[in-house]
């Protein structure tokens, strides 16, 4: 399978509008499952369409394998049908007048594959996708999840070097989305296809991808594994976009956060050499612990007196809403909480679980934070 390289890609639709994609450099490796993640209008679908050839960049170069398929400066443009890519849209785009079998073998017919080989490949991919028993039905006779499997089977039948997926699960209900995520994971492992997947759903990206590219305002904010994106966000945008409930942000030296901001500054002033460079502090809800008695709080932890304002069950976990100096802090626990609304408690966080951001919102060097004098370091 080929690598995909995007070099200094720009896309502008004219009319004085800002660039939809700005100076994008991205390497998608052989056999990778790459998710382009971001809010609506961030440029992720535009990027996918430029890779496929449905959009033409206004600057930069796109290479698939060893072949340049799009270069503005060199005047190169390879049309979509010659890029050996498979594209699955948000809508299933199935032919309503063709049976499932004929929908799946449609691409093979266009390529004039011999009948015996065509039938063999069609049957094989339909069996792997669990739709062989529907081969004589029409799309209108299938559920949304089954139609999505047909759309994927049609692409896999032609054995594309790269599979491009544009929010293919957004039209499905929660149960079907879960099933199709597992299906896509299996497809990637079984076919070893390079997959580029566009989504605004962070959980789809986290559960499916081997690499995630987080985008905002046409720019790549961070590229990394799901663990890197979640555990070491490059800036506040990434930190706040990925995670549910969202990360707790404490603006440092900010009157709006009152005492909590001052307590955070006092805590960090003894542990961070360049305290003046810090702008905010981030705390993931699952790293916020709750203790009824102060004696149960580790000595080196960042802590504050707080009041429980709500305990919200979510099924397999609970969200504890805390009020600290008129500021809301959220904690998540997988164990049944022993506290209830109105109770006075302490919240505490291990120093190594704090995310530091500078005044520009970029991740500050965590290594400069002195974690503990009493062994809290992992």
UniProtKB/TrEMBL annotation:
GO terms for molecular function: ATP binding. Keywords: ATP-binding, Nucleotide-binding, Transport. Pfam families: ABC_tran (PF00005), TOBE_2 (PF08402). InterPro entries: AAA+_ATPase, ABC_transporter-like_ATP-bd, ABC_transporter-like_CS, ABC_transpr_MalK/UgpC-like, Mo/tungstate-bd_C_term_dom, NA-bd_OB-fold, P-loop_NTPase, Transp-assoc_OB_typ2. The keyword Nucleotide-binding applies. Residues 4-242 form the ABC transporter domain. This is ABC transporter ATP-binding protein. It comes from Paramicrobacterium chengjingii.
């Amino acid at each position: 399978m080929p690598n995909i390289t995007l070099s200094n890609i720009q896309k502008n639709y004219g009319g004085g509008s800002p660039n939809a994609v700005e100076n994008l450099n991205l390497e998608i490796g052989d056999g990778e499952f790459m998710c382009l993640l971001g809010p609506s209008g961030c440029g992720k679908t535009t990027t996918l369409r430029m890779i496929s050839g449905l959009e033409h960049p206004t600057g930069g170069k796109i290479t698939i394998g060893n072949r340049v398929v799009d270069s503005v400066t060199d005047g190169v443009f390879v049309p979509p049908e010659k890029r050996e890519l498979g594209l699955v849209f948000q809508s299933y785009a199935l032919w309503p007048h063709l049976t499932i079998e004929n929908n799946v073998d449609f691409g093979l017919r266009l390529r004039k594959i011999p009948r015996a080989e065509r039938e063999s490949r069609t049957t094989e991919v339909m069996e792997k996708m669990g739709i062989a028993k529907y081969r004589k039905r029409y799309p209108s006779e299938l559920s949304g999840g089954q139609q999505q499997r047909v759309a994927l089977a049609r692409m896999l039948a032609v054995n594309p070097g790269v599979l491009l997926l544009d929010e293919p699960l957004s039209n499905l209900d929660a149960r079907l989305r879960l099933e199709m995520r597992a299906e896509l994971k299996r497809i990637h492992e079984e076919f070893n296809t390079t997959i580029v997947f566009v989504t605004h759903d962070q959980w789809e990206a986290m559960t499916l991808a081997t690499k995630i590219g987080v985008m905002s305002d046409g720019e790549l904010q961070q590229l990394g594994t799901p663990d890197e994106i979640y555990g070491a966000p490059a800036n506040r945008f990434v930190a706040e976009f990925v995670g549910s409930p969202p990360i707790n942000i404490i603006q440092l030296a900010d009157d709006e956060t009152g005492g909590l901001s001052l307590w955070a500054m006092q805590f960090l002033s003894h542990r961070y050499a360049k305290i003046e460079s810090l702008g905010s502090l981030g705390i993931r809800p699952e790293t916020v612990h709750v203790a009824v008695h102060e004696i149960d709080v580790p000595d080196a932890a960042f802590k504050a007196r707080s009041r429980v304002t709500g305990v919200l069950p979510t099924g397999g976990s609970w969200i504890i809403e805390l009020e600290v100096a008129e500021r809301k802090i959220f904690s998540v626990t997988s164990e049944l909480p022993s506290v209830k609304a109105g109770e006075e408690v302490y919240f505490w966080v291990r120093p190594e679980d704090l995310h530091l951001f500078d005044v520009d919102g970029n991740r500050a060097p965590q290594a400069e934070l002195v974690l503990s004098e009493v062994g809290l370091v992992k």
